[in-house]
Design a protein that fits this description.
Strand 3, helix 1 and strand 4 form a beta-alpha-beta unit. The two termini are 16 Å apart. It contains six helices and 13 strands. The chain has 306 residues and is α/β, with parallel strands linked by helices.
Protein backbone atom coordinates (compact mmCIF):
# COMPACT_ATOMS: atom_id res chain seq x y z
CA UNK A 1 0.00 0.00 0.00
CA UNK A 2 2.62 2.50 1.04
CA UNK A 3 5.08 1.83 -1.75
CA UNK A 4 7.04 4.85 -2.89
CA UNK A 5 6.01 6.98 0.05
CA UNK A 6 8.16 10.01 0.73
CA UNK A 7 7.93 11.05 4.37
CA UNK A 8 9.43 14.28 5.63
CA UNK A 9 8.39 14.31 9.27
CA UNK A 10 9.50 16.53 12.11
CA UNK A 11 10.27 19.67 10.14
CA UNK A 12 10.21 22.47 12.69
CA UNK A 13 9.52 26.04 11.66
CA UNK A 14 10.67 29.11 13.54
CA UNK A 15 7.77 31.43 14.24
CA UNK A 16 7.19 34.83 15.78
CA UNK A 17 8.63 35.42 19.24
CA UNK A 18 5.31 34.99 21.03
CA UNK A 19 4.40 31.73 19.30
CA UNK A 20 5.42 28.11 19.69
CA UNK A 21 7.36 26.31 16.92
CA UNK A 22 5.37 23.84 14.86
CA UNK A 23 6.04 20.97 12.50
CA UNK A 24 4.34 19.28 9.59
CA UNK A 25 4.47 16.18 7.43
CA UNK A 26 5.18 15.76 3.72
CA UNK A 27 4.04 12.64 1.86
CA UNK A 28 4.10 12.10 -1.88
CA UNK A 29 3.33 9.39 -4.43
CA UNK A 30 1.58 7.07 -2.03
CA UNK A 31 -0.48 5.62 -4.91
CA UNK A 32 -2.32 3.47 -2.40
CA UNK A 33 -5.70 5.07 -1.77
CA UNK A 34 -7.34 4.04 -5.06
CA UNK A 35 -9.46 1.28 -3.40
CA UNK A 36 -11.34 4.05 -1.59
CA UNK A 37 -12.89 4.81 -4.98
CA UNK A 38 -15.19 1.87 -4.44
CA UNK A 39 -15.44 1.70 -0.61
CA UNK A 40 -14.71 5.24 0.54
CA UNK A 41 -15.72 5.27 4.20
CA UNK A 42 -15.55 1.62 5.22
CA UNK A 43 -13.15 1.51 8.18
CA UNK A 44 -13.17 -2.29 8.15
CA UNK A 45 -11.26 -2.50 4.85
CA UNK A 46 -7.55 -3.29 4.76
CA UNK A 47 -6.68 0.01 3.10
CA UNK A 48 -8.41 1.96 5.87
CA UNK A 49 -7.05 -0.12 8.76
CA UNK A 50 -3.47 -0.09 7.47
CA UNK A 51 -3.61 3.56 6.50
CA UNK A 52 -4.98 4.65 9.84
CA UNK A 53 -2.39 2.55 11.70
CA UNK A 54 0.53 4.08 9.79
CA UNK A 55 -0.76 7.64 10.06
CA UNK A 56 -1.43 7.32 13.78
CA UNK A 57 2.06 5.91 14.24
CA UNK A 58 3.52 8.99 12.54
CA UNK A 59 1.35 11.29 14.61
CA UNK A 60 2.02 9.59 17.95
CA UNK A 61 5.71 8.76 17.61
CA UNK A 62 6.97 11.85 15.83
CA UNK A 63 4.58 14.33 17.41
CA UNK A 64 4.17 16.18 14.14
CA UNK A 65 1.34 17.20 11.95
CA UNK A 66 -0.11 20.69 12.16
CA UNK A 67 -0.81 20.00 8.50
CA UNK A 68 0.12 17.51 5.78
CA UNK A 69 1.64 18.56 2.46
CA UNK A 70 0.95 15.90 -0.18
CA UNK A 71 2.48 16.68 -3.61
CA UNK A 72 0.38 14.38 -5.75
CA UNK A 73 -0.45 10.80 -6.65
CA UNK A 74 -2.20 9.80 -3.46
CA UNK A 75 -4.22 7.51 -5.73
CA UNK A 76 -3.45 5.96 -9.09
CA UNK A 77 -5.83 5.68 -12.03
CA UNK A 78 -2.99 5.46 -14.52
CA UNK A 79 -3.34 1.74 -15.16
CA UNK A 80 -7.14 1.61 -14.96
CA UNK A 81 -9.20 2.07 -18.10
CA UNK A 82 -12.46 3.94 -17.74
CA UNK A 83 -14.54 0.87 -18.55
CA UNK A 84 -13.03 -0.98 -15.59
CA UNK A 85 -13.81 1.87 -13.22
CA UNK A 86 -17.40 2.01 -14.46
CA UNK A 87 -17.72 -1.76 -14.07
CA UNK A 88 -16.46 -1.68 -10.47
CA UNK A 89 -19.17 0.88 -9.70
CA UNK A 90 -21.89 -1.40 -11.00
CA UNK A 91 -21.70 -0.78 -14.75
CA UNK A 92 -24.72 1.52 -14.91
CA UNK A 93 -22.92 4.87 -15.17
CA UNK A 94 -21.50 6.55 -18.25
CA UNK A 95 -17.71 6.64 -18.19
CA UNK A 96 -17.57 10.36 -17.38
CA UNK A 97 -20.01 10.00 -14.49
CA UNK A 98 -18.27 6.87 -13.21
CA UNK A 99 -14.88 8.61 -13.20
CA UNK A 100 -16.33 11.53 -11.29
CA UNK A 101 -18.03 9.31 -8.70
CA UNK A 102 -14.94 7.15 -8.19
CA UNK A 103 -12.73 10.19 -7.75
CA UNK A 104 -15.07 11.90 -5.28
CA UNK A 105 -15.27 8.67 -3.30
CA UNK A 106 -11.51 8.27 -3.25
CA UNK A 107 -10.48 11.81 -2.38
CA UNK A 108 -13.20 12.48 0.18
CA UNK A 109 -12.39 9.08 1.69
CA UNK A 110 -8.67 9.91 1.79
CA UNK A 111 -9.40 13.16 3.57
CA UNK A 112 -11.62 11.35 6.08
CA UNK A 113 -8.90 8.74 6.69
CA UNK A 114 -6.30 11.40 7.49
CA UNK A 115 -8.80 13.16 9.74
CA UNK A 116 -9.48 9.91 11.61
CA UNK A 117 -5.75 9.64 12.36
CA UNK A 118 -5.58 13.15 13.79
CA UNK A 119 -4.46 15.12 10.74
CA UNK A 120 -7.07 17.85 10.32
CA UNK A 121 -5.44 19.98 7.61
CA UNK A 122 -4.59 18.14 4.39
CA UNK A 123 -2.92 20.20 1.64
CA UNK A 124 -2.70 18.04 -1.49
CA UNK A 125 -1.52 18.74 -5.01
CA UNK A 126 -2.96 16.99 -8.02
CA UNK A 127 -0.69 14.46 -9.72
CA UNK A 128 -0.84 12.81 -13.13
CA UNK A 129 -2.30 9.61 -11.69
CA UNK A 130 -5.23 11.41 -10.08
CA UNK A 131 -6.02 12.73 -13.58
CA UNK A 132 -5.91 9.35 -15.33
CA UNK A 133 -2.31 9.56 -16.62
CA UNK A 134 0.02 8.38 -17.89
CA UNK A 135 -1.36 6.35 -20.78
CA UNK A 136 -4.55 8.31 -20.44
CA UNK A 137 -2.79 11.51 -21.55
CA UNK A 138 -1.88 10.14 -24.97
CA UNK A 139 -3.99 10.52 -28.08
CA UNK A 140 -4.69 6.86 -28.77
CA UNK A 141 -7.48 4.34 -29.18
CA UNK A 142 -8.02 3.88 -25.44
CA UNK A 143 -7.21 7.43 -24.41
CA UNK A 144 -8.79 9.05 -21.38
CA UNK A 145 -8.41 12.68 -22.42
CA UNK A 146 -12.16 13.25 -22.67
CA UNK A 147 -12.55 12.31 -19.01
CA UNK A 148 -9.62 14.32 -17.61
CA UNK A 149 -12.07 17.13 -16.65
CA UNK A 150 -14.08 14.55 -14.65
CA UNK A 151 -10.93 13.33 -12.89
CA UNK A 152 -9.96 16.93 -12.05
CA UNK A 153 -13.44 17.95 -10.88
CA UNK A 154 -13.67 14.87 -8.70
CA UNK A 155 -10.29 15.73 -7.15
CA UNK A 156 -11.50 19.26 -6.38
CA UNK A 157 -14.89 18.24 -5.00
CA UNK A 158 -13.56 15.29 -3.03
CA UNK A 159 -10.76 17.15 -1.27
CA UNK A 160 -12.05 20.70 -1.12
CA UNK A 161 -15.86 20.67 -1.34
CA UNK A 162 -16.85 17.76 0.91
CA UNK A 163 -17.84 15.68 -2.09
CA UNK A 164 -20.37 18.18 -3.44
CA UNK A 165 -19.79 20.08 -6.68
CA UNK A 166 -21.91 22.98 -5.42
CA UNK A 167 -20.46 22.95 -1.91
CA UNK A 168 -18.35 25.77 -0.40
CA UNK A 169 -14.67 25.69 -1.33
CA UNK A 170 -12.31 24.96 1.56
CA UNK A 171 -9.53 27.44 0.71
CA UNK A 172 -11.22 30.75 -0.05
CA UNK A 173 -9.57 33.03 2.51
CA UNK A 174 -7.28 35.59 0.79
CA UNK A 175 -3.59 35.26 1.55
CA UNK A 176 -1.96 38.59 2.42
CA UNK A 177 -4.74 40.23 0.41
CA UNK A 178 -4.23 38.05 -2.67
CA UNK A 179 -6.97 35.68 -3.95
CA UNK A 180 -6.50 32.21 -2.54
CA UNK A 181 -7.13 30.57 -5.94
CA UNK A 182 -6.90 31.44 -9.65
CA UNK A 183 -10.60 32.04 -10.31
CA UNK A 184 -11.43 32.19 -14.01
CA UNK A 185 -8.81 29.65 -15.04
CA UNK A 186 -9.17 25.90 -15.48
CA UNK A 187 -7.14 25.59 -12.28
CA UNK A 188 -9.48 27.62 -10.04
CA UNK A 189 -10.32 24.58 -7.95
CA UNK A 190 -7.08 22.62 -8.12
CA UNK A 191 -4.56 25.38 -7.29
CA UNK A 192 -4.78 27.27 -4.01
CA UNK A 193 -2.85 29.19 -1.39
CA UNK A 194 -3.15 28.65 2.35
CA UNK A 195 -1.67 30.44 5.34
CA UNK A 196 -0.75 28.80 8.63
CA UNK A 197 0.68 31.23 11.20
CA UNK A 198 3.67 32.85 9.47
CA UNK A 199 3.89 30.36 6.61
CA UNK A 200 2.21 30.44 3.20
CA UNK A 201 1.82 27.20 1.25
CA UNK A 202 0.92 27.42 -2.44
CA UNK A 203 -0.37 24.26 -4.12
CA UNK A 204 -0.11 24.33 -7.92
CA UNK A 205 -1.80 22.14 -10.52
CA UNK A 206 0.81 21.95 -13.29
CA UNK A 207 -1.08 19.75 -15.80
CA UNK A 208 -2.29 21.70 -18.84
CA UNK A 209 -4.07 20.40 -21.93
CA UNK A 210 -2.29 21.66 -25.05
CA UNK A 211 -4.68 23.20 -27.56
CA UNK A 212 -7.79 21.10 -28.12
CA UNK A 213 -6.03 17.93 -27.03
CA UNK A 214 -6.32 16.44 -30.51
CA UNK A 215 -2.60 15.72 -30.91
CA UNK A 216 0.28 14.54 -28.75
CA UNK A 217 2.61 17.36 -27.84
CA UNK A 218 6.38 17.29 -27.82
CA UNK A 219 9.00 19.95 -28.51
CA UNK A 220 12.27 18.08 -28.62
CA UNK A 221 14.37 21.19 -29.12
CA UNK A 222 13.00 22.87 -25.97
CA UNK A 223 12.46 19.62 -24.10
CA UNK A 224 8.76 20.31 -23.58
CA UNK A 225 5.95 17.76 -23.43
CA UNK A 226 6.41 14.12 -24.33
CA UNK A 227 3.53 12.67 -22.29
CA UNK A 228 0.67 12.94 -24.75
CA UNK A 229 -1.58 15.98 -25.11
CA UNK A 230 -1.01 17.22 -21.56
CA UNK A 231 2.14 19.07 -20.64
CA UNK A 232 3.44 20.47 -17.36
CA UNK A 233 3.76 24.21 -16.90
CA UNK A 234 2.33 27.24 -15.12
CA UNK A 235 1.46 29.99 -17.57
CA UNK A 236 -0.94 32.79 -18.51
CA UNK A 237 -3.44 33.90 -15.86
CA UNK A 238 -2.47 30.92 -13.73
CA UNK A 239 1.10 32.23 -13.55
CA UNK A 240 -0.14 35.78 -12.91
CA UNK A 241 -2.14 34.54 -9.92
CA UNK A 242 0.91 32.66 -8.63
CA UNK A 243 3.07 35.77 -8.81
CA UNK A 244 0.39 37.85 -7.11
CA UNK A 245 0.35 35.48 -4.13
CA UNK A 246 4.15 35.45 -3.93
CA UNK A 247 4.43 39.22 -4.17
CA UNK A 248 1.68 39.84 -1.62
CA UNK A 249 3.22 37.36 0.81
CA UNK A 250 6.64 38.99 0.58
CA UNK A 251 5.12 42.43 1.22
CA UNK A 252 3.56 41.14 4.45
CA UNK A 253 6.14 41.42 7.23
CA UNK A 254 4.34 38.81 9.34
CA UNK A 255 4.93 36.10 6.72
CA UNK A 256 8.37 34.55 7.15
CA UNK A 257 8.27 31.46 4.92
CA UNK A 258 6.80 30.52 1.54
CA UNK A 259 6.50 26.89 0.44
CA UNK A 260 5.35 25.79 -3.00
CA UNK A 261 4.21 22.32 -4.02
CA UNK A 262 3.49 20.84 -7.43
CA UNK A 263 3.68 17.26 -8.54
CA UNK A 264 6.51 17.40 -11.06
CA UNK A 265 10.22 18.05 -10.48
CA UNK A 266 11.89 21.06 -12.06
CA UNK A 267 15.63 20.42 -11.86
CA UNK A 268 17.09 17.36 -13.59
CA UNK A 269 18.33 14.70 -13.16
CA UNK A 270 15.85 13.05 -10.79
CA UNK A 271 15.97 9.44 -9.66
CA UNK A 272 12.95 7.67 -11.15
CA UNK A 273 11.39 4.30 -10.31
CA UNK A 274 8.19 3.07 -11.98
CA UNK A 275 6.95 6.53 -12.92
CA UNK A 276 6.51 8.61 -16.07
CA UNK A 277 9.34 10.97 -15.23
CA UNK A 278 7.33 14.02 -16.22
CA UNK A 279 8.93 17.33 -15.30
CA UNK A 280 8.19 21.03 -15.61
CA UNK A 281 8.58 22.50 -19.08
CA UNK A 282 11.51 24.88 -19.17
CA UNK A 283 13.02 23.53 -15.96
CA UNK A 284 15.10 26.24 -14.26
CA UNK A 285 14.55 28.55 -17.25
CA UNK A 286 10.78 28.50 -16.78
CA UNK A 287 8.95 31.60 -15.58
CA UNK A 288 7.60 29.50 -12.72
CA UNK A 289 11.10 28.78 -11.44
CA UNK A 290 12.27 32.35 -12.00
CA UNK A 291 9.38 33.69 -9.91
CA UNK A 292 10.19 31.33 -7.07
CA UNK A 293 13.76 32.61 -7.11
CA UNK A 294 12.68 36.24 -7.39
CA UNK A 295 10.38 36.02 -4.38
CA UNK A 296 12.72 33.76 -2.41
CA UNK A 297 10.54 30.72 -1.97
CA UNK A 298 12.01 28.66 0.84
CA UNK A 299 11.14 25.13 -0.31
CA UNK A 300 9.65 23.59 -3.44
CA UNK A 301 8.04 20.21 -2.73
CA UNK A 302 7.57 17.82 -5.66
CA UNK A 303 6.74 14.19 -6.24
CA UNK A 304 6.98 12.00 -9.36
CA UNK A 305 10.64 11.02 -9.20
CA UNK A 306 11.50 8.53 -6.50
Amino acid sequence: MWCRTILFAGLSIAVLADEEPFSFVVMSDIHGFTPLSFKPFDNSTKIWREGERILKNIKNNYGVGEFVVMPGDSASYGGMFNAKIASKLGGNLLHYDAIYQAGVNCHSGTKALFNSAGFDALLPTVGDHELGGNKGFRVAKKQKLSTVPAYRQAYVDGFFRDGQQSGPYLFNTPVAGAPARPVGTMFEGSSFAYRFRNVVIISVDAFRLVGDGDANYIDREQGFGGEGAITCDVSGNHLAWFENVLKSARLDSTIKHIFVEAHVPIIQPVRKVNCSGQFMDGADKSEFWKLMNQYQVDIYFAGEGE
